[in-house]
Amino acid sequence: MPSSTLSVTDNRTGKTYEVPIQDGTVRAMDFRKIKTSDDDFGLMLYDPAFTNTASCRSNITFIDGDRGILEYRGYPIEQLAESCTFLEVAYLILFGELPTAPELDDWVYEITHHTMLHENTKKFMEGFRYDAPPMSMLISTVAALSAVYPDATHVQDPANRMLQIKRLIAKMPTIAAMSYRHSLGFPYVYPDNDLSYTENFMNMLWKMVEPKYAANPVLARALEVLFILHADHEQNCSSSVMRAAGSSRSNPYLCVASAASALSGPLHGGANEEVIRMLDEIDSEAAIPAYIESVKAGKRKLMGFGHRVYKSFDPRARLIKEIAHKVFGVTGSNPKLDIALKLEQIALQDDYFVSRKLYPNVDFYSGLIYQAIGFKPEMFTVLFAIPRTVGWLTQWQEMISDPEQKISRPRQIYTGARQRPLPPIAKRESAASGA
Ligand code: ACO
Prior knowledge:
CATH topology of the largest domain: Citrate Synthase, domain 1
Order of helices and strands: EEEEEEHHHHHHHHHHHHHHHHH
Number of helices: 17
Mean pLDDT: 95
Low-confidence stretches: none
Strand order of the largest sheet: 1-2-3
Distance between the termini: 57 Å
CATH superfamily of the largest domain: Citrate Synthase, domain 1
CATH architecture of the largest domain: Orthogonal Bundle
Number of strands: 6
Bound molecules: acetyl coenzyme *A
Shape: globular
Largest sheet: 3 strands, antiparallel
Oligomer: single chain
């Protein structure tokens, strides 16, 4: 008998089944043959929120949540953050290898020359109300690009896919910056092809009447590193949405809009915004113990704490803390930093957080940096979406090219009524009457 199997005895029938184990997993479909009779459907696996289910094979991003390890294509995040540009890392994530010097030149040229939006798209954005949240504008505008590029539906064509990937990576900062300028009532700024990816983004955000925008090099590098840290994170909520939406072969602009919608929630990428609101609410170090008690009483969550996968520390949070000090050296400290540091210190000594392995995640300090650089909280999740577009698109590519993948379609355990006789309208009871 091979050793890599699982013996399962069904106590309903007394039958024993051998289930192969590969890569530390069993296949859910192997359980389907476990039946009580021929017309029995067979066993299913129940896993709400996919806490213990691998939905794909992937060679993009490796995470060891217990040891706090994050690698893109096998390279530790710390080394990439230390030595690379964002577009270099984007190339690595997308193509699997770091670019050579000529490959990087070509890649940067390609991305740089896809940053413009059609004037119609700009006009579309101008139609939003003055107080439209930038994340809503970003999601809607990315979805609207599916109307600008209807040929993008040819997702089985690798060359077509690559063109859309370049367009999306290039245009996200432009859309993001225009959303931001819109919320301030400022005219939109066109891309400047002389500048790097992040410097050009800063140019589109903040250029006013000067003929040429010059980014502060420390802030530009900080943004670059933040983009690197956010570029991919394997099968997180938004990447899973990207894969599921793409599995029906939808236009990639719509898939990215779907993924960005998932990112916008406060339990995912929207947490950075919530952290700032939480620190505002706490307001002083003296109020921290009472706040912690209300979290422990289950009245609220400590935003920026906890992670589905990281159970010792989030390596991105450690790197972000280092960036924060560099940024504050230029901008002056964020007055909320002291509250955040104290909050972290108190939480990490409290058994509630220690026993549940709750540590600061990437979002705990990123908002403080963004705020010090000058962004409003409504913009924080947009700043997450720009680099994560690289991860979404790479996950999408991998999914489409994987012969094992099909349209994404989970099963359910049906708990509702069955076979009810249809009552005439006069005899129906309102659903509201039972509420
Ligand atoms: N504050 C207080 N308690 C928490 C927190 C928190 N931030 N996070 C988890 N817990 C508690 C839960 O209440 C639960 O306690 P219990 O066992 O007594 O019921 C226990 O810790 C386990 O938590 P789960 O909810 O099972 O963890 P899950 O993996 O489902 O959730 C999540 C992970 C969503 C990140 C959660 O920790 C959370 O809501 N954090 C705050 C929001 C946040 O910072 N999100 C950003 C995540 S990183 C990212 O997406 C980029």
